[in-house]
Amino acid sequence: MQRRKLLQIGAVASLTLVTVGGGLVWMRPAAPAAELNAESRMLFTAVAQAVLDGVLPSGPARASALAGHVERVQQTIRGFAPAVQNELAQLLGILCTAPGRRLLARLAAPWDVASVADVQLALQRMRTSRLATRQQIYHALRDITNGAYFSDPVAWPAIGYPGPRDI
Q1: Would you say 93 and 38 are in contact if contact means Cβ atoms under 8 Å apart?
Q2: Taking the model in full, what pTM does it have?
């Protein structure tokens, strides 16, 4: 290999590394790990509408239920260990970018404009993916969504749970 060709390859590789590394720096969440930023709130709203389709109330009560749900998601995340909060913040930071959303969720539209059917399809693709990472992302999003939603006593009748028994 000629010296000139080797230098060109090295320059291209360095430029690529700087570009990718710089892009990853921009993906870091601006909010503390225990706080959801606006993009993460949109993500969890979209996931809730997809996962809880048929359980969420309809009409004007839906927006209120979703707002309450996102607040319960926030409280759920605050209860996680700091290391888990940081990992989740990194994941949400990636999923809230267009490249991350397209690569990991295979969702073309932003979370706030994607249809319920599109988000359901994206979640299904993650659930059945051959990659364990994508499956773990699906399970994390679904489990956080279900746990936060069904922790509200208002949601219990939808699943036939009468509530805790008096002792």
Answers
A1: no
A2: 0.78
